[in-house]
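Internal tracking record. Fields below are filled automatically when a chain is submitted to the structure queue. Please do not edit lines marked as system-generated. If the sequence contains nonstandard residues, flag them in the REMARKS field before resubmitting.
Queue: standard
Priority: normal
Entity type: single polypeptide chain
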Amino acid sequence: MLRSMFSAISGLRAHQTKMDTVANNIANVNTVGFKTQNTVFETTLTQVLRSGKGPDATEGGTNPAQVGLGVKLAAITTDFGQGKTQNTGRALDFMIQGDGFFVTKSGGQQLFTRAGSFTFDGAGKLITADGNRVQGWMSDVDGNIDTGGTLEDLQIQYGAALPPKATTAVTMSRNVLIDPNAAPGANVKVAKATVYNQAGVEQRLNLTWTQQSVDNSTGDSYWLLNVANEDGSTTPAPVTYGAKFSAGKDPVFSAAGATTATPTDTYGTAHTIAVPGWGAPTGATFDFAQVTAQAAGTAIAAVDQNGYTAGSLSSFSLAEDGTMTGVYTNNERRAIGKLAMATFDNPSGLINMGNTSYAVGDNSGVALIGAAGTGSLGTLSSGALEMSNVDLSEEFTGLIIAQRGFQANSRVISASDELLQDLVNLKR
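SYSTEM-GENERATED OUTPUT FOLLOWS
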């Protein structure tokens, strides 16, 4: 009778734990990044009342007689399945689709979380809702990010300066609009280009194309290209080059920058042109690979150049691969940093540290750090959060099971108590 009572007591304890777990799941039904926990029971030791016996020549075998001594908690497992998506439209909200955790740091401890609702602190560091610093990789001065480097706090400082960059390359495109019937020097086309020197000073150029002659038998046309300041200043003097368009294709500049109508052919599509008024560097490489000489089409223009004036950080955006891109007042965009993610061989072995964060456990394996979308790591969606993966229908069912299991075990205790009372009353 005492065995039944103690077995029932163990059942009460186990089902109380199940009730606690179910209650915690229901309480966190709307917690961002929360993962459902489930209880697993197993039997405790059994008492052997009679040992079993194997068959022999004269008798058959007998099975052992065993009485169980109750139930115990085997494990509380965590379901890391994907939670539902809640669209927020907030730039600092991130949702992981697939495996992985955000990497954070609290004091000197590295933590991991699926809750991607971030904000900034007073120092411009990206933090979680409870103040843990989000980890990743910051870019170098050129915007390059080494995802194999050491993790550090991600930080954005509004107003941070972006130094100017001198123009070294200009891309020209479209058409110089050839006129086969024009007299030499009569067909003039002007393209404009904006460039920057080392100090970030903007300089506008006029690129004047003057048709010299057309070879109707080959389709070749010869031009002079004059590069001058838009404001007409002549100190230093404008620079003139000869160019040939072969059968309406890419232009060819003379190596010496000839000013004659028929320059020496030097095959290539790019040419370094001295920019009037510059100190150092003295010129930029103009790419003419996309320029043609045809009777109709869109007039030639500078479509791209790689220089810019000084600017300061005014805003930023977060890409779905975790890259933070800064937007500067000079309209430049530059990568600032990238969020790090981590995965584990056994996520269920992580230690729950509260605040929807986990720490490395003895059975979780080491954290495998990488960028979103690489290896087994999931991808990121900005403007959305991963909600709890709690299924209320399952939890209410578990609630009923836990309640009935508790009630049934309490009835066993009551029945055992009545048997003990009957035993005591035998004396009367």
